[in-house]
């Protein structure tokens, strides 16, 4: 090697070494594990260029990883393929392209598709399928039966979508038929930026699993700009992050839906989410009549909890409303109102959380107990 070649090689090495390494930061979603289950953050509905989406399948994996998701399903339409002149492929292709990257990044990718029909029955997602090509059928019922035979978990997408149900969100006899055949197992209570009151009611009445999904078509940041809006998620309470465990949880209705700083679900999940998120910091209050004592409450979750007093406390007063901001500690004042308070070993406060909504559509009642004396 002559000197000029050596100098060139040296400069090349220096140049490469000086290139910034591309580091990405995943935003972890802080919602606690509960009841011995892992709280998995999931989005089971999204599109790519292989149907009517704007992005390549691997982009969906990268977005999911950055957004702190654990599990996703890419669910390209079977019957609506506006890019088919440019992209000729079968219905399994988007999954196959995304899978190696998903494995590498630790995002669990579930194979899925969207059965796309006019109302009724509208759009249905089938996830945990084996072969999307076989679900392409003339008859919607046959498509659903094929999905079921493949072991799919089928859910009704955006039931109140105005393009299909402009006047009223109706439940059709076709849905009853799907339900009775054991095919329909879930329903989107929230899709994109729409919440469907009827779907919450049906989830409760008909024992359907509740889901909240993005149904994203554009790059995710175009729909949910960073720092302004978080994408909707289905919280799945699973024994671990495996396909089997996620499917078992969905079949067992072990989910809650998380969107716009609100979580909706069964009380048995919401109560431990709240309890595991907050910590009452003050050890001993020693409240007496006419005294003012301070209590600190820390919220270690990403969810701001909005508390409203639902019943007055005995012997003391506490604030009507408390906002427990994410990752903050709040100080609240308790004021003794009778001599009774000095004798109490526990101070009991009765609130409801206005952004934790039960399956019955009610605010979650919570009690906060603080040791006194
Ligand atoms: Zn759809
Ligand atoms: Zn869709």
UniProtKB/TrEMBL annotation:
<protein>
    <submittedName>
        <fullName>Sb-PDE family phosphodiesterase</fullName>
    </submittedName>
</protein>
<dbReference type="InterPro" id="IPR016195">
    <property type="entry name" value="Pol/histidinol_Pase-like"/>
</dbReference>
<keyword id="KW-0732">Signal</keyword>
<feature type="signal peptide">
    <location>
        <begin position="1"/>
        <end position="23"/>
    </location>
</feature>
<dbReference type="Pfam" id="PF16392">
    <property type="entry name" value="DUF5001"/>
</dbReference>
<dbReference type="GO" id="GO:0035312">
    <property type="term" value="F:5'-3' DNA exonuclease activity"/>
</dbReference>
<dbReference type="InterPro" id="IPR003141">
    <property type="entry name" value="Pol/His_phosphatase_N"/>
</dbReference>
<feature type="domain" description="Polymerase/histidinol phosphatase N-terminal">
    <location>
        <begin position="42"/>
        <end position="119"/>
    </location>
</feature>
<dbReference type="InterPro" id="IPR032165">
    <property type="entry name" value="DUF5001"/>
</dbReference>
<dbReference type="InterPro" id="IPR052018">
    <property type="entry name" value="PHP_domain"/>
</dbReference>
<dbReference type="GO" id="GO:0004534">
    <property type="term" value="F:5'-3' RNA exonuclease activity"/>
</dbReference>
């Amino acid at each position: 090697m002559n000197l000029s070649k050596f100098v060139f090689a040296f400069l090349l090495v220096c140049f490469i070494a000086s290139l910034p390494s591309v580091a990405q930061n995943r935003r972890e979603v802080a919602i606690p594990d509960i009841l011995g289950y892992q709280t998995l953050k999931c989005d089971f509905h999204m599109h790519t260029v292989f149907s009517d989406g704007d992005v390549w399948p691997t982009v969906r994996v990268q977005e999911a990883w950055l957004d702190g998701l654990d599990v996703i399903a890419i669910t390209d339409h079977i019957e609506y393929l506006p890019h088919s002149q440019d992209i000729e492929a079968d219905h399994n292709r988007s999954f196959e392209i995304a899978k190696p990257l998903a494995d590498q990044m630790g995002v669990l990718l579930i194979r899925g598709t969207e059965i796309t029909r006019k109302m009724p029955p509208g759009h249905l997602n089938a996830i945990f399928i084996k072969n999307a090509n076989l679900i392409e059928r003339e008859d919607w019922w046959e498509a659903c039966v094929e999905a079921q035979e493949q072991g799919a978990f089928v859910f009704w997408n955006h039931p109140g979508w105005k393009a299909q149900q402009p006047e009223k969100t109706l439940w059709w006899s076709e849905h009853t038929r799907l339900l009775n055949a054991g095919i329909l197992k879930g329903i989107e209570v929230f899709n994109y930026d729409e919440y469907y009151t009827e779907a919450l009611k049906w989830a409760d009445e008909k024992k359907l699993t509740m889901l909240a999904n993005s149904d994203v078509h554009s790059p995710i940041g175009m729909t949910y700009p960073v720092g302004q809006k978080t994408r909707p998620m289905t919280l799945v309470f699973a024994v671990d992050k495996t396909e089997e465990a996620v499917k078992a949880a969905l079949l067992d209705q072990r989910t809650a839906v998380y969107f716009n700083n609100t979580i909706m679900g069964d009380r048995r999940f919401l109560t431990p989410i709240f309890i595991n998120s907050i910590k009452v910091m003050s050890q001993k209050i020693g409240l007496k009549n006419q005294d003012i004592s301070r209590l600190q409450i820390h919220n270690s979750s990403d969810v701001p909890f909005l508390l409203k007093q639902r019943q007055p406390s005995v012997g003391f007063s506490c604030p009507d409303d408390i906002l427990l901001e994410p990752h903050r500690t709040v100080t609240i004042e308790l004021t003794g109102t009778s001599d009774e308070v000095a004798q109490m070993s526990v101070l009991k406060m009765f609130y409801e959380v206005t952004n934790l909504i039960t399956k019955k559509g009610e605010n979650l009642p919570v009690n906060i107990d603080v040791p006194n004396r």
